[in-house]
Amino acid sequence: MSSFHPAYRELLTESPCLHGEDGQNQWSLAQEVMDWLTENVRPGDRTLETGCGYSTLIFAMAGAQHTVISPIPEEHDHIRRWGLAHGVDFSKVTFIAAKSEDVLPNFGPEPLDLVLIDGWHAMPAPFIDWFFTCTKLAVGGRVMVDDTQILPCRILREFLEQETGRWSLERRFKRTDVFRKLKEQMFEGDWRDQPWGARPILTLADYFRLIVRPTLVRGLRRLPGIVPAMKKLRSLIQNRNKSN
Question: Beta 167-172 vs 176-181: how paired, if at all?
Answer without folding.
Answer: antiparallel
